[in-house]
Amino acid sequence: MNKIPGGPAPEPEPNALSPDDARHLAHELRTQQIQNDQPVRGHETVLLVEDEAVVRRFGERALTISGYTVLTAADGSEALQALERHGQPVDLLLTDVVMPGMSGRELAQEVARRKMARRTLFISGYTDEAVGRHGILQPGLAFLNKPFSHETLARKIREVLDWPADQAKA
Predict the structure, then answer these.
(1) Res 48: pLDDT
(2) What is the per-residue pLDDT for 142?
(3) Would you tell me the crossing angle of helices 104-113 and 76-86 to the nearest 10 degrees?
(4) pLDDT beyond 70 at 125
(5) Nearest residue to 68 (alpha-carbon basis) of 45, 38, 34, 93
(6) Which fold has domain 66-97+110-170?
(7) Mapped to the 3 state alphabet, what secondary structure does the chain carry?
(8) CA atoms of 120 and 142, how far apart (whole Å)
(9) Helices 53-65 + 150-162 axis angle, to 10
């Protein structure tokens, strides 16, 4: 695209996408993939914090199979140590709501204060009432009920990672 000094503005190159158009197209393609029941894949880094070992292993395996890099921790203290060792922010904090010691909400707030996660997804097997007491059922917070399948987890994570930057915060 060459501009002639003093001449008319050049026509855009055919098939050229603006960065916004490219992001929109990528989102639309992922949405089609989800709607067509195709396996959902990712490449981002997820910190999975879950106090139940069986659920933690299931989540780690499901996310790894889906292409994610997974860090794991059994509680809030381990999660903060894992983030320190990792040395850079993760793309998603995936945390149980109710855990011994630090709750998932408290962990998410601390991780947000340190700017160590772009997004947060809360998970819980407790009732809505119990989860609500932890302040999770608020607009703008991402939540997934346990139990969930590999596919449901992968789709929800992809959805949260693709949300606008001002959503899915702690």
Answers:
(1) 98
(2) 85
(3) 30
(4) yes
(5) 45
(6) Rossmann fold (3.40.50)
(7) CCCCCCCCCCCCCCCCCCHHHHHHHHHHHHHHHHHCCCCCCCCCEEEEECCCHHHHHHHHHHHHHCCCEEEEECCHHHHHHHHHHHCCCEEEEEEECCCCCCCHHHHHHHHHHCCCEEEEEEEECCCHHHHHHCCCCCCCCEEEECCCCHHHHHHHHHHHHHCCCCCCCC
(8) 7
(9) 70
Distance CA 56, CA 93 (A): 13
Joined together, the tokens standing for residue 128 give 């809505």
Domain ranges in the chain are 66-97+110-170
Q: Per residue in 58-101, pLDDT tens?
A: 999 999 999 999 999 999 999 999 999 999 999 999 999 888 99
State the residue for tokens 């997804």. 121
